Amino acid sequence: MLLCSAAPAQTSDAPPRDAELERVVFQAFPEADGYKCITRNVDLADRRRVEQRLTFKIHFDELGEHCLTVAFRGRRPVGLIYRRKEEADWGLTEIAWHITLDLRVVGFQFIRGRNRHIRALEQSRFAASLANADLGKVLARVAEHERGEHAERNKEITSLERTTLRSAAKALIVTEVVWEREIEKLHDQAIGFDLFPAAARFTRRTTTLDMLHGGAGQTVEVKVLYAYDLGNTLLGCVAWSEARDGEQVTALRWVIDRDMRVTDVVPTHNVRDLALRKQCSVIKGHALADPPEQAAALSPLARTLGATVPALMQHRSPR
Questions:
Q1: Strand order across the 34-41 sheet
Q2: pTM over the 0.90 mark
């Protein structure tokens, strides 16, 4: 079974045909050839988490049962659709938000609404400015709008922009809070299929490593995604880590094949750090059990981490 099938939410492998939903999904993600729906009720704990993160108040009835649609290309998830109904000056407005697996706005569509400017807004510079926006950027735009910045002369457009920005913030926060575990698994699954196309299933493990550096002990959290073929043979793994060396944070993604050879290692943060990227490149293609002398250029903490990956691959408890 695919990784996402382990999600504790109520899932539907073959949801009832919904022509409107299909249109939204395939317009938002043209590469998709299918979709699944995950329905969940927002409980009191989730409601409080949502309200704490929003910078504005919402009505109690806004948080009830919600449905998240996951677009797939074959077995690989490619994006999310979350539809929200919003109270607006011209009555109820429904907006479908297109969201990446790392929770950034791809775009949006008005499913229904009586404001005469909705189609123009979908094609406007305002809409383009939300593309690839994460929650931080969306909340900054909400604050700008509340202060009257970038206000249009037309009050109908201004009101519609306000509704849309607030809807974007709610969509990203609710998606992250309510479907947090499912989205993490879907994100891992997408990366897993990209790196191991022959995989049939994935499992995850998160552990902590106790390492010595400069005479001091450090605890580093590592997340590992294992890929298996149809015969349940291990194909390899992807390992993520973040290690701190003083004020310097080394965040790496390791791709290891079944022979414990590094096929790739890249920084997931500080990606513009050319020196770090060059240091990572020297270890590619080498077995972790016998790293090349050139790998000494990589920080001692990162090299120590690399030495622990074989233990993770063999499902041993790392020291």
A1: 10-12, 34-41, 65-73, 76-88, 91-99, 105-112
A2: no
